[in-house]
From TrEMBL:
Species this chain originates from: Rotaria socialis
Name of the protein: GH18 domain-containing protein
Gene Ontology CC entries for this record: extracellular region
GH18 domain mapped to chain residues: 1-133
Cross-referenced Gene3D superfamilies: 3.10.50.10, Glycosidases (3.20.20.80)
């Protein structure tokens, strides 16, 4: 199924361990383990997973997939920017992350809006800053 590379928040449909695969949970866990907030850096991804959709008409979060997509399952930010020119971008306001799909291909690479949301999160929680990876 499709999934985000680095969402800020969990999706309400996620359960159990899957609710831990987001920035908010990871940062809170580090604080809980005693890491000072000012030592925690929040990542802004420069690449993301790609998926080949099972049905190109079903393309939301957790959509069924056949397997990995374009580029052996990975797409860089530059490739994403080129794809968005053709396919456009979609915003998931719950997870605070973007994604795009084109024909049977689906991917998520953080864009400027997702980075801005993470920057606000860093400031609101007094974390040390952000970095790209």
């Amino acid at each position: 199924q499709t999934g985000y590379s680095s969402p800020l928040y969990p999706k309400s449909i996620e359960t159990d361990e899957a609710r831990q695969y987001n920035t908010e949970w990871s940062a809170a866990y580090l604080v809980e383990q005693g890491v000072p907030r000012n030592k925690i850096l929040i990542g802004l991804e420069g690449l993301g997973h790609t998926f080949q959709l099972n049905d190109s008409n079903i393309h939301d979060f957790a959509a069924p997939v056949v397997g990995i997509g374009y580029g052996g399952g990975w797409m860089t930010f530059i490739e994403y920017c080129l794809l968005v020119k053709t396919a456009g971008s979609n915003w998931d306001d719950e997870a605070k992350v973007n994604y795009t799909f084109y024909n049977d291909q689906w991917t998520n690479v953080g864009d400027v809006r997702a980075a801005a949301e993470k920057a606000l999160f860093v400031k609101a929680n007094s974390y040390g800053g952000a970095f790209t990876f």
